[in-house]
Amino acid sequence: MNPPEDVLAALRELRAGDLPTHGGRTLAYVYDSGLSEVDSLGAAAHALASSANGLDPTAFPSLLRMENDLVAAASALLGAVPGVAGSVTSGGTESCLLAVLAARDANPSVASPSIVLPTTAHAAFHKAAHLFGLRRVDVPVDPVTFRADPAAMAAAIDDSTVLVVASAPSYAHGVLDPVPEIAAAALERGVRMHVDACIGGWVLPYFARLGADVPPFGFRVPGVTSISVDLHKYAYCPKGTSVLLHASAELRRTHYFASAAWPGYTMLNTTIQSTRSGGPLAAAWAVVNHLGEDGYLKLASAAREAVSRIRAGIEDLPGLRVLGDPVSTLIAFTGDDGFDVFTVADEMKARGWYVQPQFAFETSPANLHLTVTAANHGSEKQFLTDLAASVDAARAAGPVTVDPAVAEFVAALDPATLTSEQFAGLLAAAGLGGAAGLPDRMAPINALLATAPAPLRERLLLEFLGALYTPS
Question: Which residues carry this modification: N6-(pyridoxal phosphate)lysine (predicted)?
Answer without folding.
Answer: 233
